């Protein structure tokens, strides 16, 4: 009988210990803020607006501002968080916590992170965006202020593209075959590359000092430039063939009999401008389309305290 009683008591103690462990694990979460953003990394190298414009690439840094949703008190300013390439952020420059009062928080975020102290600063895209990292760094993103309730679940942020994107596809025309275009490059002729960006409001304006003295080279994802207007009748695109030959696409003029109602080309923020270029030895034939640039929409994720 004593042995049986001992076994019963021992079993009960184990069950109670398990319950207490579960409760303690729940209580161990002390209000750490975690973030989630983007979608699963796409490995395709096709020149598509799905790659990489619907996620934030691994090792890219965003900047985060957090305030108390009730009192408006600033809690964290310009904290950096590193994307892991799979929709989560794995490294934070400072661990952030919800207010002990239990209030909700408001969060603003942007990409790429800037370590300066001024909310408004000059942002300039690279001249050569055929390098993927340069393209990533050119993608100015903004997640507008929103309220997030106190929760273990990662706050889901939605980033919008602030600049304009140009994509080009090359097709062989008269006198050429597809192989003749292998290694050909496309450049936007002296576009504006700089803007003033306010990371608190998301506002952008043309920079006071122009950075448009150089061409911008497109890569397999295209190229990102400042919102701007190109005047009709001016050269817009340059195609350099592997042989060294150079061809130009000039925006049509009003008196062009083949184009009715031509006007200046306006590159607006948040849009992708696709130019389908038929390359012929006698010149270029171009058709174009405009589509909204898909937002980077967050994915939900679970967030708990890391084990120390």
Plain-language structure description:
By secondary structure, the protein is mainly β. It has two helices and 21 strands. The strands form six sheets. A six-stranded antiparallel β-sheet has the order 4-3-2-5-7-9, with no helix packed on it. Strand 12 and strand 13 (204-206) form a beta hairpin. The protein is elongated, with a radius of gyration of 26 Å. It starts with a helix and ends in a 16-residue tail after the last strand. The model is unreliable at 5-27, 38-49 and 297-308 (pLDDT under 50).
Please summarize what this structure is.
By secondary structure, this protein is mainly β.
What is the number of beta strands? 21
Task: Bin the strand percentage.
Answer: 35-45%
Helix percentage = 10-25%
The secondary-structure class comes to mainly beta
Q: Which key terms come to mind for this protein?
A:
11% helix; four-stranded mixed β-sheet; six-stranded antiparallel β-sheet; 308 residues; elongated; mainly beta; 21 strands; disordered C terminus; single chain
Strand and helix map with partners:
Blueprint: H1 2-27, E1 35-36, E2 61-68, E3 74-83, E4 89-92, E5 105-111, E6 120-124, H2 132-138, E7 141-148, E8 155-156, E9 160-161, E10 164-172, E11 185-188, E12 194-198, E13 204-206, E14 216-217, E15 223-225, E16 228-230, E17 235-240, E18 246-250, E19 265-267, E20 271-280, E21 283-292
């Amino acid at each position: 009988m004593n042995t049986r009683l001992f076994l019963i008591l021992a079993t009960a103690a184990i069950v109670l210990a398990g319950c207490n462990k579960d409760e303690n694990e729940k209580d161990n979460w002390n209000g750490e803020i975690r973030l989630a953003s983007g979608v699963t990394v796409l490995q395709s190298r096709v020149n598509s607006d799905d790659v990489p414009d619907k996620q934030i690439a691994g090792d890219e840094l965003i900047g985060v501002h957090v305030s108390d949703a009730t009192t408006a008190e600033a809690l964290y300013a310009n904290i950096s968080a590193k994307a892991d390439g799979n929709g989560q952020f794995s490294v934070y420059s400072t661990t952030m916590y919800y207010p002990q009062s239990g209030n909700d928080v408001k969060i603003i975020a942007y990409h790429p992170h800037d370590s300066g102290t001024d909310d408004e600063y000059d942002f300039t895209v690279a001249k050569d965006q055929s390098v993927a990292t340069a393209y990533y760094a050119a993608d100015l993103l903004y997640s507008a202020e929103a309220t997030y309730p106190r929760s273990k679940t990662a706050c889901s942020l939605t980033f919008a593209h602030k600049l304009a994107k140009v994509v080009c596809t090359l097709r062989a025309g008269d006198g050429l075959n597809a192989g003749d275009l292998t290694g050909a490059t496309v450049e936007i002729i002296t576009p504006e590359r700089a803007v003033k960006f306010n990371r608190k409001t998301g506002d952008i304006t043309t920079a006071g000092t122009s950075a448009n003295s150089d061409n911008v080279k497109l890569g397999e994802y295209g190229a990102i430039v400042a919102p701007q207007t190109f005047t009709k009748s001016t050269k817009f695109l340059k195609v350099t063939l592997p042989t060294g030959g150079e061809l130009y696409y000039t925006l049509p003029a009003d008196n062009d009999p083949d184009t009715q109602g031509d006007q200046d080309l306006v590159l607006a923020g948040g849009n992708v401008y696709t130019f389908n270029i038929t390359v012929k030895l006698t010149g270029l034939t171009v058709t174009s389309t405009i589509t909204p640039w898909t937002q980077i929409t967050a994915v939900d994720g679970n967030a708990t305290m890391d084990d120390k």
